[in-house]
Amino acid sequence: MRILHTSDWHLGRSFHRVPLLEAQAAYLDHLVATVREHEVDAVLVAGDVYDRAVPPLSAVELFDDALHRLAAVGVPTVMISGNHDSARRLGVGAGLIGRAGIHLRTDPAGCATPVVLRDAHGDVAFYGLPYLEPALVKDVFKAERAGHEAVLTAAMERVRADLAGRPDSTRSVVLAHAFVAGGEPSDSERDITVGGVAAVPAGVFDGVDYVALGHLHGCQSVTDRVRYSGSPLAYSFSEASHRKTMWLIDLDASGTVTAERLDCPVPRPLARLRGRLDELVEDPALERHQESWIEATLTDPVRPAEPMARLLERFPHALSLVFEPDRAPDDPLASYAQRLKGRDDQQIAEDFVAHVRGGSAADEQERTVLRGAFEHVRVDDGVREVNR
């Protein structure tokens, strides 16, 4: 069976205030053309179809058009909700849409009910594990703890139990939206850390032939059988080095996986430039970035006058300006942002406790309280998004 693995469309998202709807429409054109050209048997979308729980109408219309076109091609599509999606909204009409070959899996309780497709070698069972917010689904799976590993382990136990009741020749594919250990994140993914832990081990998914992951935006292989397709477009400058692709997966009669990366169209290349303003606007070697979207990090000791206006004269698609003056690390003028770079909310809060207590660091009980407070706020935000 030939499978096209995609994820993280983020329909409705912009790039530094530049609308991407036209680029997303071009990607979906490419997706449908790829399905035809490569004679794909099933399309997988591993979550984050939309960029937010209540997407703009233009994004909904684009999604609706994509569904009609995929159904018209006659190739089944299996799709799960991600942490950016409203599972309830995305899943509306799933039963009716399923009759057209578009299989939406947004209810955690249904994760062990697969979409079963057949090829010349028999059945392939596709299990959809939508994004599982631990605090919200812990009771559904009777998990011992409210953590990503605990709920995914419980969900996979149900999957394996269902698979065990099927013929031995049945091959299996799992779609999941999660941060799996070994994956390389970028700046454009929303944090899903729980209890100080975001990543789950790949071994959680043992026992199936292929795992189609979503959430991380870089195309990558955790193992030969566990892969991220990544987002089809770049959504932050941290993705400037990414090659945006989809996975074309061939699953043979024995469940052996053969994978090929297929490139996605690039609306405009990204470039991250660093240096003093005069150097950036005068260096002839930077001519190749004339048509790129630009993030410029200025290292001038003193902030120059009208820096963005000068950059735009040289680079008409400059979008982001960062100031990191060349100063010694102990310089009192070093910016607060520089001192906090790379530190998460928990670390910043613990540093604050130590600061106000004259260097006495938070103890384990206090760190637990802080961690619980951050998780409570994040879960409350997630509940509000779901119920909006």
**Strands, count:** 17
The fraction of residues in strands falls at 15-25%
What's the name of the CATH homologous superfamily of the largest domain?
Metallo-dependent phosphatases
The termini sit apart by: 39 Å
Question: Over all CA atoms, what is the radius of gyration?
Answer: 23 Å
Specify the helix fraction band. Answer: 25-40%
Overall SS class: alpha/beta
**CATH classification class of the largest domain:** Alpha Beta
Spatial order of the strands forming the largest sheet: 6-5-4-1-13-14
Supply the number of helical segments: 11
| CATH architect. name of the largest domain | 4-Layer Sandwich
Reading the helices and strands in chain order gives EEEHEHEHHEEEHHEEEEEEEHEHEHHH
Number of domains: 3
Shape: globular
CATH topology of the largest domain: Purple Acid Phosphatase, chain A, domain 2
Largest pleated sheet:
6 strands, mixed
Oligomerization state of this entry?
single chain
Q: List low-pLDDT spans.
A: none
- Mean pLDDT value: 90
InterPro entries: Calcineurin-like_PHP, DNA_Repair-Maintenance_Comp, Metallo-depent_PP-like, Mre11_N, SbcD, SbcD_C
Domain Nuclease SbcCD subunit D C-terminal: 267-355
Family: Belongs to the SbcD family.
Keywords: DNA recombination, DNA replication, Endonuclease, Exonuclease, Hydrolase, Nuclease
